[in-house]
């Protein structure tokens, strides 16, 4: 175990899901039904991974699963873990992991869940709050394993989009312009997030920004994405397919609705296509709008803060209020009931919420690959 002067809570996205997982559509339960998903050959995103070949990764997963030492938060990320374990014909069970990496640090969990832009940085780096393991750790990437599920998107209600099409296009145009700038200038974007109230340390914020940029401009196969916000059919279909296998809603009608859901039911490409084709001039129907994040201000959401700080929203005729997540009202509920106009959520959340009777639609997919990895100490395997 490494000694550190201070331990930071891992302010991960999934912590917010304690408040927001599939709100309004009933409790979810994981299922142990095995699937035989084909393993995909994938290219690394560019961050230093485990450096192991597929057979060694399989051995690591099998050993940790056999020892009952695979950890996850169990608040929405577990579906990728269940799909990974089922892929290798292993028992689909895991340890409950808290929101620090202390269990990993003291070897209570030998294969621990981590987001590339958050917990992985805390494990590897030696800045304040970090555990400082450096290259002594490796990780298994959900994208390389072919079980990736897409995370942060932009959504609104179908009714809002129909009634305010110019506003939706303008908001997307400015937001994606902010994301483009943030990806190209992650250090500056991190400083802007800090300026707007992030509680994350400056060093970790910069680490987060550089890793979030990779999620935005690299797809699940490791290929560069130039169209920020692109809705990739294959990646979205994979996400929805895994969700259907492992998400179980406690309302039978909602569960049946989820199983019948198609991509066309929950996403609309027309708005981002129109925004990308526009000259940046819009006749907005509603000039004051709001977006609720999935968690507290941090580089995970840097594109919106950059768009606000650089005046991109103002340029398209909008005044935008960025609302922190992590409160009593989930982002899906807040958007559905009109408390806010736009929100950031995950495709699985949105599909489950709509199956439960909400009226939500994805209008842009910001993260193009999963940020979830399983991290381990090389000395343990």
UniProtKB/TrEMBL annotation:
Molecular function GO labels: metal ion binding; transferase activity
Keyword Membrane: no
Catalytic activity: N(6)-(pyridoxal phosphate)-L-lysyl-[4-amino-5-hydroxymethyl-2-methylpyrimidine phosphate synthase] + L-histidyl-[4-amino-5-hydroxymethyl-2-methylpyrimidine phosphate synthase] + 2 Fe(3+) + 4 H2O = L-lysyl-[4-amino-5-hydroxymethyl-2-methylpyrimidine phosphate synthase] + (2S)-2-amino-5-hydroxy-4-oxopentanoyl-[4-amino-5-hydroxymethyl-2-methylpyrimidine phosphate synthase] + 4-amino-2-methyl-5-(phosphooxymethyl)pyrimidine + 3-oxopropanoate + 2 Fe(2+) + 2 H(+)
Single biological process term from Gene Ontology: thiamine biosynthetic process
Pathway where it operates: Cofactor biosynthesis; thiamine diphosphate biosynthesis
Residue ranges occupied by any SsuA/THI5-like domain in the UniProt entry: 124-189, 299-379
Low complexity bias: start-end ranges: 43-54
InterPro entries per UniProt: NMT1/THI5, SsuA/THI5
Keyword entries, A-Z: Iron, Metal-binding, Pyridoxal phosphate, Signal, Thiamine biosynthesis, Transferase
Signal peptide region: 1-23
Annotated region (Disordered), positions in chain: 30-54
Keyword Nucleotide-binding: no
PANTHER family: 4-AMINO-5-HYDROXYMETHYL-2-METHYLPYRIMIDINE PHOSPHATE SYNTHASE THI11-RELATED
Family: Belongs to the NMT1/THI5 family.
Function per UniProt: Responsible for the formation of the pyrimidine heterocycle in the thiamine biosynthesis pathway. Catalyzes the formation of hydroxymethylpyrimidine phosphate (HMP-P) from histidine and pyridoxal phosphate (PLP). The protein uses PLP and the active site histidine to form HMP-P, generating an inactive enzyme. The enzyme can only undergo a single turnover, which suggests it is a suicide enzyme.
Subunit structure: Homodimer.
Name of the protein in question: Thiamine pyrimidine synthase
Record organism: Eubacterium cellulosolvens (strain ATCC 43171 / JCM 9499 / 6)
């Amino acid at each position: 175990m490494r000694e550190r002067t201070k331990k930071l809570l891992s302010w991960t996205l999934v912590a917010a899901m304690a408040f927001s997982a599939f709100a309004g559509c009933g409790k979810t339960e994981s299922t142990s039904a095995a699937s035989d998903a084909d393993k995909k050959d994938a290219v690394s995103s560019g961050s230093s991974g485990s450096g192991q070949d597929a057979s060694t990764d399989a051995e690591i997963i099998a050993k940790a699963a056999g020892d009952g030492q695979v950890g996850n938060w169990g608040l929405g990320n577990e579906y990728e873990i269940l799909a990974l374990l089922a892929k290798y014909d292993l028992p689909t069970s895991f340890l409950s992991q808290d929101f620090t990496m202390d269990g990993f640090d003291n070897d209570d969990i030998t294969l621990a869940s981590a987001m590339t832009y958050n917990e992985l940085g805390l494990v590897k780096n030696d800045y304040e709050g970090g555990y400082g393991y450096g290259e002594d750790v490796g990780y298994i990437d959900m994208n390389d394993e072919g079980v990736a599920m897409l995370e942060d998107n932009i959504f609104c209600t179908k009714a809002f989009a129909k009634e305010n099409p110019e506003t939706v296009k303008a908001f997307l145009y400015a937001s994606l312009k902010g994301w483009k700038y943030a990806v190209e200038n992650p250090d500056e974007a991190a400083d802007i997030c800090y300026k707007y109230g992030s509680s994350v340390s400056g060093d970790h914020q910069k680490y987060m920004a550089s890793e979030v940029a990779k999620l935005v401009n690299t797809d699940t196969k490791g290929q560069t994405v130039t169209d920020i916000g692109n809705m990739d059919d294959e990646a979205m279909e994979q996400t929805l397919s895994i969700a259907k296998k492992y998400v179980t809603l406690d309302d039978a009608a909602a569960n049946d609705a989820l199983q019948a859901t198609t991509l066309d039911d929950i996403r609309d490409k027309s708005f981002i296509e129109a925004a990308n084709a526009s000259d940046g001039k819009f006749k907005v129907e509603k000039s004051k709008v709001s977006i609720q994040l999935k968690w507290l201000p941090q580089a995970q959401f840097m594109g919106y803060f950059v768009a606000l700080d650089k005046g991109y929203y103002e340029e398209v005729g909008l005044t935008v209020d960025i609302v922190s997540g992590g409160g009593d009202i989930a982002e899906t509920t807040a958007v559905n009931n009109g408390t806010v106009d736009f929100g950031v959520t995950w495709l699985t959340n949105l599909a489950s919420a709509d199956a439960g009777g909400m009226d939500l639609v994805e209008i842009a997919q910001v993260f193009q690959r999963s940020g979830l990895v399983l991290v381990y100490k090389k000395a343990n395997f």
